[in-house]
Every structure is written in structure tokens, then in C-alpha cells.
Write a structure and sequence with these properties.
The chain is 53% helix and 11% strand. The chain is mainly alpha-helical. It has two domains: 37 residues, no CATH class; 55 residues. It has a two-stranded antiparallel sheet. β1 and β2 form a beta hairpin. The longest helix is centred in the middle third of the chain and has 22 residues. It starts with a strand and ends in a 13-residue tail after the last helix.
Length: 93
Amino acid sequence: MNVRAYHAGNHSTLSQVSKENTVQNSVTANHAERGTAMTSERLQQIATYKVAVILIKRMLTSGIITNAEFRSMETNIAEKCNLSLCSIYRINT
């Protein structure tokens, strides 16, 4: 998308200014090059973790499991879903 804009020093001439999002393109390309782009497999792992934690939270609030059991189960689920201890996707226990 091109827009017309004034040069800072000369208000009598106009020039074409490109208004495209080059930052997003370079960031996305950079992540792809480093192999850190979010894959559908990774998204599935995170979703699986979240659903499983919701279920064990219900068990905790219903009194079926203790808080210690909940923490242990949550850690096991995170490990199976390849989430590290400091992952932003893990719940705060």
C-alpha cells in the first residue's frame, strides 16, 4: 500500500511512501530460520496440556485429589507435553 506524504524539509514536493509491515515479515522469517516458529504439533501439545490441567483442577476443587497430587499430576502432564518448568504456558501452582 502506497500513500502520498510530504518530505520533512520541503512541503512543496510529494513522494511515494511505502506503508507495508516489514517488521512482521522479517520477524516471521527470522523465527522460521531459527526453527522457533510455532508449529501445529506444538500448538497441539499446549492445548492438550491446558485441557488436562482443567480436568485435574476440577478433581482438585471437588476434593477427589489433594493439592500435592495436583502438583505432581500437573508436572507429569507438562513433561509429557514437552513444557519446561518455566514455560509461559504452564499454570502457576
